[in-house]
Amino acid sequence: MTTLTQSRDIGFLKEQARLVRIEILKMLTLAGSGHTGGSLSAADIVTALYFYKMRHKPEYPKWPERDRFILSKGHAAPLLYTVLALTGYFDKSLLSTLRKTGSPLQGHPSSKMLQGVEVSTGSLGQGLSIANGIALGLRLDNSRARVYCLLGDGEIQEGQVWEAAMTAGHYAIDNLCAIVDLNELQIDGRCEDVMKITPVPAKWNAFNWHVFEIDGNNMEEVVTALDEAEKIKGKPSVILAKTVKGKGVSIFEGKVEYHGLAPTKEELEIALKELGEHGK
Amino acid sequence: MASREEKCGQDIATRDAYGAALAELGKRNSRIVVLDADLSGSTKTAKFAKAFPDRFFNMGISEQDMIGTAGGLSLTGKIPFASTFAIFETGRAWEQIRQTICYSRLNVKLVATHAGITVGEDGASHQALEDVALMRVLPNMVVIVPSDGFETRQVIDAIAEYEGPVYVRLGRAKVPAVMPPDYKFEIGKAYKFRIGSDVNIIASGIMVSAALQAKEILIKEGIDVGVINMSTIKPLDTQALLEAAKNSNLIITAEEHSIIGGLGGAVSEFLSENHPITVKRIGIKDTFGGSGKPDELLKLYGLTAEDIVKTVTEFMSK
């Protein structure tokens, strides 16, 4: 098992994100199905959370003082599993069981089957409400722990997201930071064509949130936004992270068909070369 | 707890008993938090809200968000009670209950009021006749339908001690007290008023009272009738059910709910596999409700003691 090393060093975090992408692609190829595009687009964000920002103890997953991460876009499970494995929640060899019968690495995260998963997700639009509830509970306990919640941009078409956005604004939940992975694509096509979500920042502003707009594939910007969000008091923060779906591998980047497709063996070869994983 | 004895015998609405029990529970247990969706005056959670404003969250008219927020609170060790009308709680937010509460087996108590047609004048849109079916089908869910105020108070105390998701179905209208002073509620344990050798009536909620009235009438007619209060619909007390079925020729189920998927469904499913016997289901016959006075509606939809009597005598005369 790995021991957790955390650092704000951008070079270190970029290297972790590269390793995360490699493991995501390997596990997806072995599984033969799963969500490639949205796992890669958010890889820098989730890497920054687990390898830098969040206070957590992989050897003590239920540590009461831990910061919480809720993967509302549950289909990015391969990303969560990889980061959990690489930070030491479980052995990396388990990644090869993704989506297999009986594996704790279900197609979408199950908290009853895998250590480190706070709550089961997969049905879109429900995570932010859960994150609010955790944040309110922590506040009642005067805990300094924070809650992070990752949503997809297609996901914010769900009405419950805006119920939750209203709740967080109303109750001024400032120990919460939502992050929206704005990769502009959803399973049926461009969000712009399927169901327009723009203007996104104005919507969150209108619901009484403090809004950050960043390049979500730029590690420096991700880390800075996470630091700044922690300083916002009296209202919840949202980081609107513009990303590229399939980021890191040219053949997947911006391609809507890789929302729910796993790489073939040949595509994996190309991807590993691009990610600098020579001859493996 | 000391007030338990004196509360027995009171004809009150189960929602009123809930409001009182919850406020008392709040004093004893600081982990209790309460959520409501803009109906706290009607669900009676307002009493808790007034006593413990820091532990009460009005979520506005947004049931789906309420369920998720309750789930999140439970993940920090709180014991959330989330309340609204039964139709909105179980219908509007069914998928949130499935995905967030039941799949992760979160310790959330869903206590809904205004179930059944005795909601009255508000009519079909506000009368949950399917809620027990919707909750019973979910893995990990416990489903409880208390019969009177005295039982409701005990149910609220019991579910706070139980770890896991629970649905409790309460009503708007005042109901007759039926449970005896020495009654002690336990999750999954039915109360046998009496086991009959001809017929046994398995009832829940307000229909326990109707079943007891029907029993008096039928016994006078020489038919040996028993009554069981099956307040926990899931898990079903199969021991009590088997005892009733083995001792009689007819099982009647009586509920203020659709005859599909509720108590009648649960009893029929179990008996057809384990002790086949005729089961007649008294309940709402696959239709919507309507506006009116509760008593008039109970007559209109065939949910009175007389309806039970008629069903039994028809069967016995065959």
UniProtKB/TrEMBL annotation, chain A:
<dbReference type="InterPro" id="IPR005474">
    <property type="entry name" value="Transketolase_N"/>
</dbReference>
<keyword id="KW-0786">Thiamine pyrophosphate</keyword>
<comment type="similarity">
    <text>Belongs to the transketolase family.</text>
</comment>
<feature type="domain" description="Transketolase N-terminal">
    <location>
        <begin position="17"/>
        <end position="276"/>
    </location>
</feature>
<dbReference type="InterPro" id="IPR029061">
    <property type="entry name" value="THDP-binding"/>
</dbReference>
<protein>
    <submittedName>
        <fullName>Transketolase</fullName>
    </submittedName>
</protein>
<dbReference type="Pfam" id="PF00456">
    <property type="entry name" value="Transketolase_N"/>
</dbReference>
From TrEMBL, chain B:
<dbReference type="InterPro" id="IPR033248">
    <property type="entry name" value="Transketolase_C"/>
</dbReference>
<protein>
    <submittedName>
        <fullName>Transketolase</fullName>
    </submittedName>
</protein>
<dbReference type="InterPro" id="IPR009014">
    <property type="entry name" value="Transketo_C/PFOR_II"/>
</dbReference>
<feature type="domain" description="Transketolase-like pyrimidine-binding">
    <location>
        <begin position="12"/>
        <end position="177"/>
    </location>
</feature>
<keyword id="KW-0808">Transferase</keyword>
<dbReference type="InterPro" id="IPR005475">
    <property type="entry name" value="Transketolase-like_Pyr-bd"/>
</dbReference>
<dbReference type="InterPro" id="IPR051157">
    <property type="entry name" value="PDH/Transketolase"/>
</dbReference>
<comment type="similarity">
    <text>Belongs to the transketolase family.</text>
</comment>
<dbReference type="InterPro" id="IPR020826">
    <property type="entry name" value="Transketolase_BS"/>
</dbReference>
<keyword id="KW-0786">Thiamine pyrophosphate</keyword>
<dbReference type="Pfam" id="PF02780">
    <property type="entry name" value="Transketolase_C"/>
</dbReference>
<dbReference type="GO" id="GO:0016740">
    <property type="term" value="F:transferase activity"/>
</dbReference>
<dbReference type="InterPro" id="IPR029061">
    <property type="entry name" value="THDP-binding"/>
</dbReference>
<dbReference type="Pfam" id="PF02779">
    <property type="entry name" value="Transket_pyr"/>
</dbReference>
